Amino acid sequence: MDWWHAIVLGLVQGLTEFLPVSSSAHIRVAGELIGFGDPGAAFTAITQIGTETAVIVYFRRTIVTVIKAWFGALPIGPWKNTVPRNDPDARMGWFVILGSIPVVVLGLLLEDWIDHAFRNLYLTAATLAIFGIFLWLADVTSRRVKELDQLNGRDATIFGFAQALALIPGVSRSGGTITAGLLMGYSRKAAADYSFLLAIPAVLGSGFYKLFTDGLTGVSPVSMPATLVATIVAFVVGYVVIVWFLKMIRTRTYTIFVVYRLVVAAALVVLLLTGVLSPMPTIA
Questions:
Q1: pTM above 0.90, yes or no
Q2: Which pLDDT score is estimated for 283?
């Protein structure tokens, strides 16, 4: 992979990771269009370490507060029972853990599908369109009255399974969880905030898993220096996108992203039918 390939793909990752448009789908297609081929699931997972680091930096105060409260509410250790078990921040720690279980389990069980079958571009086009419509329906029908202090175990589990759907390129991690949150009656900001927090353990876990199993072992088609460049670019761009996105959803609907998903899905089908793109991954 040339350096400019790495920079372009890092830029795509940073721009799309937090928007409900599916970064994995964009990385998959962008790699083909710029002539490199499919960068692979490992490259996508590793570069997400960069965007997830941006989440940690942005939400650092919230994350530290949640971790301290969670440890303080545990019944063991030198910090035991220093925080009430029903403390909202302590409960959030448990809800993030609970919501992370589905994507971890399904990610391991479906690893071969994620690396191969799920990367079919016809499937990507279908999921972009279908889940775009789901997002629109959720946005226009949701009551949006619940905030994160009303989160419970059932809702956290539903959020978790919605996040797991993003194992299929085209669904979108943020799009899936935000759609689920809206359908459960959460406000746009509450659904987005929990989406960001919930992604941290899953994305970092997946990224470092792929780093050690594929990246450092040479299985990935992308060299580690190029992957590192893309990851750094994704971090910088991703942070800017987080700031913009969380401000935007305070006053705007998700309609622009729905329209964008439908246009991209249609364009993708045209490129496939005309032979510009191949449905299954190709490696340069």
A1: no
A2: 54
Alpha-carbon span 266 to 58, nearest angstrom: 34
Residue 42 CA to residue 47 CA, distance in Å, equals 9
DSSP string of 158-188, one letter each residue: HHHHHHHGGGSTTS-HHHHHHHHHHHTTB-H
Give residue-wise pLDDT tens across range 223-263: 888 889 999 999 999 999 999 999 999 888 999 999 999 99
Task: Name the residue type at position 250.
Answer: R
- Amino acid at site 102: P
Distances from the Cα of 16 to the Cαs of 88, 94, 276, in angstroms? 31, 28, 23
**What is the enclosing helix (H) or strand (E) of 200?**
helix 188-210
Whole-angstrom distance, CA of residue 77 vs CA of residue 99: 25
| Non-local CB neighbours of 114 within 8 Å, separated by 6+ positions | 41, 107, 167
CA separation, residue 119 to residues 24, 63, 113 (Å): 9, 33, 8
